[in-house]
Amino acid sequence: MTRRLTGFQPTGHLHLGNLIGAMRPLVAAQDRPSIAMIADLHALTMEHDPQAVRANTLTVATVLLAAGVDPQRTPIIANSQVPEHTELHYLLECVTGYGEAARMIQFKEKSAAGGTVRLSLLTYPVLMAADILLHDIDEVPVGEDQSQHLELARTIATRFNARYGATFVVPEGIRPEAAARIMDLADPVRKMSKSAPSPAGRIGLLDPPETIRKVISRAVTDTAGVVRHDREGQPGVTNLLEILRACSGRDPGELTSYGALKREVTDAVEAVLAPIRARYAELLQDPSHVREVLARGKAFVRPRAAETVRRTRAAIGLLD
Ligand code: AQP
C-alpha cells in the first residue's frame, strides 16, 4: 500500500485552508500508512522567534489531534526530533547542484524580500527531499507552490539511484482537488495563508465564533449581485461557495443575496470548527499528552529512517 507524508510548517496560526486542503484528506486516508510531519526545521529558514516556533510546533500537533488525526494509525512527528532528517539532508546536498536550488521560485521570492538570506533557505527543498525520501514515501499531497520542490526531490532520488544504486523510492506528487484550495477572504485571488500580514482574509482554526462571523461578513465579494460559481469572474463569491461545499457537503439552494450566502457559510464553518475547538481545549488540560504523542511518533518512524540513512551512507561511500 502506498505511503503518504503530509507536512505542516509551524509558522503561524493554522487556518481553514490547512484544514480543508491538508488535515481532512489526511484524516480521511488513515487506513493507509501515512505520516503527519511538523516541519519545525523548515520554520528556521526565515527570521523567527524561538519561543513561537516551539509553541507553534506543539499547537500544530495538538490541532492535528483535535482535527481527528489518530496517532495510533498516523504517527505525528516533528522533523527536528528525528535526527536522521538532518543527516540525510546533508547526504542529499552532496548530489544537488547549487543552480538547482537557486532556481527554485520560492527561494527567489523569499530571498528577494530583503535582509539576510539564510543558507538554509537555499537548501530548504533539499531538506524537504530528505523529509520525504527518509520514510520511503510514495505519495506527497502538494499544492502548486510546492510542486517545484517535489519535482526536485524526484530528481535527487532518481539521480542518486542511477549514480549509486537503488536506494530511494521515487515519490509522486498528488494534487488536492481544485475545491480544496481555499482563498484569502480579503483578497480572493491569493490563497489563504498563515503568513499573510493581515488576519482579515484568514479563518483561524481556533478563532472564537465572533471573529469567524466578522471575518466572513467582511469577505470581499463583487457588485454582480448574483450567487454563482465563477472562479475567474467572481473569485470572492466562488471561494465562499467552495468553503460552504467543503464544510457542509452541499451547494446552497436558492440563495439570492451575498448576505444570505455569508450567513450560511458562517454557520457551516462554525459547525466544523466548534468540535475542533472543544477537543483542542480538552487536550490542553494535559500538555504532556501531546509531547508523548510526538515521542511515540518519533519512536515509530526511527527504525525505517535509520535503515534509509544506513543504505544511503553505504551507497555513497561512507564507513558504517
Ligand atoms: N489556502 C489553502 N487551501 C488549501 N490548502 C492549503 N494549505 C495551505 N494553505 C492552503 C495546505 O496546508 C498544508 C500545510 O501547509 P504548510 O504549513 O506547509 O504551509 P503552506 O502551504 O505554505 O501554507 P500557508 O498556510 O500559506 O503557510 P505560510 O504562510 O507559512 O507559507 C499543505 O498541505 C498545504 O498545501
UniProtKB/TrEMBL annotation:
GO terms for cellular component: cytosol. Pfam families: tRNA-synt_1b. InterPro entries: aa-tRNA-synth_I_CS, aa-tRNA-synth_Ic, Rossmann-like_a/b/a_fold, Trp-tRNA-ligase, Trp-tRNA-ligase_bac-type, Trp-tRNA_synthetase. GO terms for biological process: tryptophanyl-tRNA aminoacylation. Belongs to the class-I aminoacyl-tRNA synthetase family. PANTHER family: TRYPTOPHAN--TRNA LIGASE, MITOCHONDRIAL. This is Tryptophan--tRNA ligase.
